[in-house]
Here is the input.
Amino acid sequence: MLQEAAFTKVKAEKKTVTGADLLLEALKKEEVEVIFGYPGGAVLPIYDKIYDCDILHVLPRHEQGGIHAAEGYARISGKAGVVIATSGPGATNIVTGLADAMMDSLPLVVFTGQVATGVIGTDAFQEADILGITTPITKYNLQVRNIEDIPRLIKEAFHIATTGRPGPVLIDFPKDIASGMIEPPAEEEISLPGYQPTIEPNYLQIRKLTEAVSSAKRPVILAGAGILFSKASELLREYVEQQQIPVVHTLLGLGGFPADHPLFFGLAGMHGCYTANMALSECDLLINIGARFDDRLTGNLKHFAPKATVAHIDIDPAEIGKNVPTEIPVVGDAKVALSMLVKQEGKPPENSEWIQTLESWQKENPYWYENSNAPLKPQRVTEMLFEETNGEGIVVTDVGQHQMWAAQYYQFKNPDRWVTSGGLGTMGFGLPAAIGAQLADRSATVVAILGDAGFQMSTQELAVIREMNLPIKIAIYNNRSLGMVRQWQEIFYQERYSHSKIPSQPSFVKLADAYGIKGYEITSEQEAETILKEVMNNNEPVLLDFRVAEGENVYPMIAPGKGLHEMVGVKK
Amino acid sequence: MRRIITLTVLNRPGVLNRITNLFSKRNYNIESISVGHTEQEGVSRITCVVNVDNDRIIEQITKQLNKQIDVLKVADISDQAVVSRELALIKVQSTPQNRSEIYALIEPFRASVIDVGKESLIIQITGESEKLEAFIELIKPYGIKELARTGTTAFPRSSQRSKQQTNFSIV
Here is the structure.
């Protein structure tokens, strides 16, 4: 409010506003609720205005934490995450987050400070060519050259970030542009003649797909994160129930279709379940909705869905046919495509035999592990977290074994409850992303499932959790190693554990204590049960250091270069 | 196979960087690239010649290019009747003794001499890439001191003949 008052006053008296004023005004117009930002020299004019601004500003303890938090926020809220970093090192510190958001199609609008226009290109203090650096890892990036363009450019940035296939957009803000004063510019419409995503699919392709479904004997739907981005979960369910087509999920798609639905057959891919991978290997019609046939999903492409006609619904035409030859390409938004498919009311396929086969696979080859009270089994811990949250918590993970166990054993009932770094596989992502997720949904129980190594890549963000009193449940699966690296070294490198074991570690409980967060070391299933009951429902952050079995591996597994049907570690 | 892709792009800062970056990011090889203004203000035309192994790659290239925010239009015009031109400047060693010999080579290629020095002359030649290559091969024995090529720029012809027919350029 203060800010608005100041703004009008300036307008009335001097008829001048600064670039920074225009920036914050534009953010308000976009209804931005939270900014994840870190001040520094080149963004001082912006921070001087943030001082009076009523948008919530979160100060991460490292810029990378800030951008991962924005990613978590974007994933849960469906809105663009907003980040501010200063020039030079501030800007280069967010590079990993941009690459991560680009891979996982997360909408971000990122502002970086830049040295003043007069000294750009002179290797000035804290100057970095952030446009050059981030061009391949942003959906779009640009530098503001004229103050009066700011409102339009920001409007365009939000439009680009959140429409079509979402992605990160970076705006580089020279210091003199932020502090320069002009008369308030007239409102300008966005002008992006080269950017018109196809939303409505071609009707003929929808017809073709409907016919293919009717005549299929062994159809399967592979549902990816596109379902979540387009908010198509309910329509997917409607379509699946109308046509009785089994569904499997990609890693990032989890939650798009309810895990307890009789037509859901699990997670597919490198550590997916037997049934889902065999369904992809044996199907005669594969309908990919909003997934990009990532190599961790397909395994060796030579053996991928060898018997199937492939249909692919995607808003990004460049994804169709990129990795897997596609007979029925459908370019468009998943929700629009599904509503058209539902309206077709095509003849459902005769596939009861196929569903029976899948059901018997599911019964005979579930995920499995050998439980023990101590050492604690990570799979069991995940099951307990699932039970304690009734399957309705927001689960945020880092990258590695714990991520796969979370994906396998947490049965998501609802969409937009799962935050993980899929494409880039960024360690250190989990803890800050949990902050963003909690800010996007204050009432949810957020469980950050982390490995002991990934946790140590962004430990400093504990300070934010305490400062903002976010009741995040931090569950560290502590196996004193880089679990997934160790697993690969065990299997593919003759147990030569090169730098994958971490024998000396700090006490995470004491570390949490130093940040003012209550911590518990948990060594047995019994202990876990009591402590979880105690802490899961209170309104305080907590750190749970689960001392899990060190040599535990993630199974089933598809070795690199192998096909989906060549899983090892399947329950016999 | 050799493919010609033409793009019209918004002439915004960094647009060329985005295009060339995309080629290196996706591991595509550019044989040549030429850029310049068009009849429309603020719009540039880029012509890329690429060498690819199969149709799927060229499809990916055009789709990825199309995805760029500042790209207005992408066309793979290799299968159409096109007029394509490239310009080369060639500095050749030449003495008064062999000068007329070189002039005799220049004549049938409709190239021209644009600068003459004591020990060298500069030839300008325009045409399709194959023609330029043929000429360069011919002139090589005289000693090429410097060579600069602009890369191909191309248009589809106004009238297209059916695909079965081979297309000939008159020039």
Q: What stands out?
A: Chain A has a mean pLDDT of 96. Residues 203-364 of chain A form a domain with the Rossmann fold fold (CATH 3.40.50.1220).
